[in-house]
Amino acid sequence: MLYDFIVKDAEYKDISLSDYKGKVLLIVNGATGCGFTPQYDGLQNLYDKFQPEGFEILDFPSNQFLGQAPGTNEEIVGFCKLSFGVAFKQFSKIDVNGENQEPLYKYLKTQAEEYRNKETVEFYEKVKQFTPDLEQNDIRWNFTKFLVDKGGNVVARFAPNITPEEIEQHIIKLLRNDEIEIICHSDFSDGCI
């Protein structure tokens, strides 16, 4: 279960995910030098809007995709605060794939199919040359997002090009205890409906 995991924050302190029981979570593998880095603005807007209602964002920077999260944890946090006003929780830089992957991510990747759209498929074709050895459920790029309900259930996985603004409607439903409906096709060719 999600709440069984203990992770390191940006200051290398142990944080139990059980601290987030009863909250709606968006877990993201961010990066400071990625084409999707401006999504930090959208993420912060979501946080400002919904944090008072029980919403949290957990950012786990990863340098696995073309070295797009260089620097120390302190440098990453400083960049995000200075450039985007990030106030949500940032964690220690991790691997999201491979033999050194963070156990939390090993778990997350088994919990939900990825919502993709036509643009996602095109983007993944472009970056495939940089990620040739990925497994079926591996994270394909920075800013993959996992949405977690108040009970700790991973209810959706969103491809990197799916913006925070596109996820907002699902966050609202979870905060209101409504179910969200995201139907994914196993071949991802058509994305999800």
UniProtKB/TrEMBL annotation:
Coiled coil: none
Active site: C34
InterPro entries: Glutathione_peroxidase, GPX_CS, Thioredoxin-like_sf
Gene Ontology molecular function terms on file: peroxidase activity
Pfam family, one: GSHPx
CDD domains cross-referenced by the UniProt entry: GSH_Peroxidase
Any one Gene Ontology BP term: cellular response to oxidative stress
Keyword terms, alphabetized: Oxidoreductase, Peroxidase
Family note: Belongs to the glutathione peroxidase family.
PANTHER family: GLUTATHIONE PEROXIDASE
Protein name: Glutathione peroxidase
UniProt source species: Sedimentibacter hydroxybenzoicus DSM 7310
